[in-house]
Amino acid sequence: MTEIEQIGNMLIEKKYDIAQKMTEDQKEILKYNSEEYLEGIINNRAEVISIIAESLVDANRDSMKEITDKALELSKKAIQLEMQMDEAIKSTSKYRKYIWDKISVFSEEEDISRQAIIKMAQQIDPLIDHAVYIFSTGYVEQHKERLKEAKDSFFELSAPIVPLMDDMAVMPLVGDIDTYRAQVILDTVLNKSTQWKVGTLFIDLSGVTVVDTQVAQEIIKITNSLILLGVKPILTGIRPEIAHTMVQLGITMDVETKATLKQAISDYFTDATQTKL
Question: Under 8 Å CB-to-CB from 128, ≥6 apart: which residues?
């Protein structure tokens, strides 16, 4: 058995001791201190140490792929546990210290040669550096994905469609409408209108604070898409100052409008009654 394999086997044997030492020293900065949580942290760290140790024992292992997969897995868990990025990165970079502390003690006891230690460093350190890099990029990507999901959920909630009757629904819009939100509104309204077989949709704009050329174009796109689906869109609640601005900008909408949602619904039922008569 070579000196490098000897150290690799030692690290495999001591992986839980190293992982536990890491966790105990960092216990104060961990968000949770329950026994189950700490046990999970220790097991995950022991697996990382095992991958690094086994790379010393078996040169044919694809240790880089193994450490990549594990680092990505841990980045997802860090996001789920709501760990701060600086704490998570700092924790990951500590592997180097604790692994080399154990190697240093063992090397003195077993009189491991300098050449073997240098060769180990050339193998261990790139794996740890790669693990930190993959963990960092994975954490950022997971964080971005969570933010996007939260943003999408927020916008979906900000474009609610409320069915009033079998073939009639209302969509009240509140706040500013940018290109991204307009796309979410469009997707939502088309899906729900088709799903609920909506014949008439009242789009209430009384809560929209600003309507400029871009916003008007997005609203036109939404109404035109509804017409193509066979849904009749009716705009309500356009405030006087916004109507004035639209006239000044030369914005016209080839769609039925009503002053208020109350008036629109009242006219809808009046027309329906007259049609039956």
Answer: 52, 93, 95, 96, 99
Residue 200 corresponds to which amino acid? T
Q: Quickly list DSSP for 33-61.
A: --HHHHHHHHHHHHHHHHHHHHHHH-TTS
* Residue recorded with tokens 């979410």: 184
Distance CA 63, CA 161 (A): 52
Q: Would you kindly state where each structural domain of the chain is located, as residue ranges?
A: 3-154, 162-276
Average pLDDT per run of 10 along the chain, which is 277 residues long? 92 94 76 75 92 91 93 86 72 85 92 91 92 89 82 70 88 83 86 91 88 82 92 91 79 86 88 64
Are the C-beta atoms of 102 and 18 separated by less than 8 Å? yes
Residue 174 Cα distances to 154, 180, 188, 262, angstroms: 12, 15, 15, 17
Tell me which DSSP letter residue 112 carries: -
Residue 166 amino acid letter: D
Q: Tell me the CATH number of domain 162-276, given options 3.90.190.20, 3.40.50.1100, 3.30.565.10, 3.30.750.24.
A: 3.30.750.24
Per-residue CA distances from 108 to 55, 89, 105 (Å)? 22, 30, 5
Burial of 175: CB neighbours in 10 Å, binned 0-12, 13-18, 19+: exposed
Task: Please state the pTM of the whole predicted model.
Answer: 0.59
3-154: CATH topology is Globin-like (1.10.490)
Contacts of 190 by beta carbon, 8 Å cutoff, 6+ apart: 225, 226, 229
| Residue 223 burial (10 A CB sphere; 0-12, 13-18, 19+) | buried
Q: Is 81 helix (H, G, I), strand (E, B) or coil?
A: coil
